[in-house]
Amino acid sequence: MERAQDHYDWIVLGDHPTALLSAALVARLGLSVLVVPLSPSTRARVSQSGQCLDPESNWVPGALTGAGLFSTCLAGLGIAPAELARIRRDPVSCQVLTHSHRISLSSEGEFFSRELNREFGAQAKGLGLVDALAAGQNEWLAYWKNLPEAMRITRDEGGVKRSKGLMTSPRDLQIELQKKQPSAAAVWADSRASVSELANRSGLPVLQEVCSGLWYGMVGSENPDPRAAEFLKALATSFSSASFVGGATAFRNFLKLLATRLGARVESEVDCRRIFVDRTGFLGVQMAHSGTVISGHGCLLGASLDHARSHLSESGEAWNKKLKASPKPEGWRMTLALTVNAEAIPPGMTSRNFWKEPGAPVLEIETANPADYGVMNPGAKLVFLRTVMPFSDESLDPRYQRLMAGRMFRKLTEIMPFVEFHVKRVYPDFHVESSLADFSEAYGFKSLDEIPESLRVISKNGVSSRSGVEGLFLATGEAYPENVGMGPLVAALEATAWVAHRAGLPGPFLESTR
């Protein structure tokens, strides 16, 4: 492979999917793009014992074909039909289990109403949630699809392209929905009300636990009592989300291949060694095992701000203070992977299940076909158990991880009776003391700073797309966490618009005329 150029219009560091999407969008404009890994990162892999481990949830906000913002961005990038088929929405996208209730989500409009009626009977009608969702679902889906235009990121010859009739912020839409809905439903668009308040008012206090589990399934972070308006926004937005065959690692590989086809240079073996900045902003990068500095007009981080800070050059040390700090995570996700006989999966279990009980973290139970990960094992299923570990030094101890893995498995045996008799492989193996080496191999982080951004759980106090250094942008879960999973994509579009405008192009979705 020929050596990299000495200069690029856009440099992407790290592999967050939205950052890789930005690489493809910018390359589509005819600008030069370089994608370089920025360790640490995560990926699905197969252990020495033959067990597939996928450390990330298979959930892509806005990726459902024709319905979401992510799919809208992908639509103009020349996706092959076979690639499009790998983006899928399961008939039931997720299911929340509690000690007394089971609620599932589906793309079918009346499905959620039937679920509530089955579990809560006549009391479900007084909630107003179904009416609020019916009144707001299409508006929220349209809001995200129209967001690029509403953000005014496309410029015409006279400056910024003005769009009429489009909401420019989630808060604007919440207020508008609250005005339009009947009183029973309007409370779900009220940013002041909490789910627990509305549940108690309706005589269904158990609804809070169910909604908390649904929140985790839709957003990926813990929230014991979400605000009603935020919950409604997440619920409506979830109808445009999808999974990708083979999980998050396969999705990243697909986006890298797409960016390469469009002309980007994607490095896979050589990491970024240093990031150079000065008082004017971003200057360039230096890759490992190279003394050459590659300059760039701008840079997008697909990794955490903390990881970027550790790569800033000494000459830019004084500008460390300008770089924003990473939001403090509430925890990180640990996964226990199992291969089981297919008959171990009880009827009614979906591909994404979430067990929620008071005072305990959510237990995620994801099931998948081994063939999705390139593993031929007929008659078997993969089960990925995930929970949120505390973001503390104690959680890095393999003995603590082994203890938590044992608890996760015991809870699974309560949810899936007799599963212990169907387990063929497990990784990391928590059964014997000597298995601590498995945990050191899978989660051998020496410090909290080494935990990859993709495993961190951040629910609030995030940052914007701006890193604090001019020309250096951010598109990860640290950006706009209040946007119910859509924050990284919003940040990526803002950054993509910046580099397009800097090159004299109208915006990120218009082809170059060069």
Defining key terms:
single chain; 514 residues; alpha+beta; FAD/NAD(P)-binding domain; eight-stranded mixed sheet; seven-stranded mixed sheet; 15 helices; 20% strand
Briefly summarize what is shown:
This protein is of the alpha+beta class.
Architecture overview:
- The protein starts with 6 loop residues before the first strand and ends in a 12-residue tail after the last helix.
- The chain is α+β, with helices and mostly antiparallel strands and 514 residues long.
- It is globular and about 65 Å long.
- The protein folds into three domains: 7-41 and 245-327 and 459-502, FAD/NAD(P)-binding domain; 108-237, no CATH class; 331-390 and 392-450.
- Strands 6, 7, 15, 16, 17, 18, 19 and 20 form an eight-stranded mixed beta sheet that branches.
- The mean pLDDT is 89.
- It contains 15 helices and 21 strands.
The CATH superfamily of the largest domain bears the name: FAD/NAD(P)-binding domain
Shape verdict: globular
- What is the fold-level CATH name, i.e. the topology of the largest domain? FAD/NAD(P)-binding domain
Number of helices: 15
Structurally, how many domains make up the residues? Answer: 3
- The CATH architecture of the largest domain would be 3-Layer(bba) Sandwich
Classify the beta-strand content into a percent band. Answer: 15-25%
Kindly provide the name of the CATH class of the largest domain.
Alpha Beta
Give the strand tally.
Answer: 21
